[in-house]
Amino acid sequence: MTIRARQDAIIRTLRRTSVATVSELAVEVGVSRRTVLRDIVALRDQGFVIHSECGPGGGLHLDPSSLQTASQVSVVEVFALLISVATMRDAQTFPFADVADAGLAKIERALTPEKVRELRALLDCLHIGRLSPLQDISDAGPVDSELLPAFELAFLQQRLLRFDYRDANGARTVREVEPQAMLILPPLWYLVAWDPTRADFRRFRMDRIGRPVVLDDSTFRKKRVPFENDVCPFQARQGS
Hints:
Elements: H1 3-16, H2 22-29, H3 33-45, E1 50-53, E2 59-62, H4 75-90, H5 97-109, H6 113-124, E3 126-128, H7 147-157, E4 159-166, E5 172-185, E6 188-195, E7 200-205, E8 209-219
Parallel strand pairs: 3-5
Antiparallel strand pairs: 1-2, 4-5, 4-8, 5-6, 6-7
């Protein structure tokens, strides 16, 4: 279950029950109490008014009126729209980019200040370039839908990301890295991360990443990604 799907499930549960405890919500969505508490904070930031009642019979209560004012669009959804428009514009395949920008600007103005800060933080991690015409893309595949929500949490909270990775030779490994940037070289998308075990930056093709998990018990400091000299030097074998 993605972060967005889990938070939507929490809201649905609060809608149909007058009061629900954190433990009940944790069982409902299959996560820890700590994760539910973090989701409640995020939902409040989105505009949902969720009251906490202590004592016997207490728990969490959703104010129905908050549903009228809460923004239904998430940071990661707006981010996905922005990078899609930016990618198509860079590839010169989107003749209506200006119209799309105007629509996205309206959406952005409807976001809460907290969401705007998160959106800017994600955009700061984004780099768009051009793929070398020598690069072999014959094996390019779809990107796991779980990846972008995992990136949202890992980038914004600076938490390590664990995932299964298949390299260019087909070898499979489990990696734990510090996500630093997203590099888009249409039609290939990359995660640029600091690999503590190798003490160096590594690029991972997103279509080769599977089963992403954000690690709650570890954080890292953001590093400067050395993109200045050459955003994407051609390599016959991408990834590590």
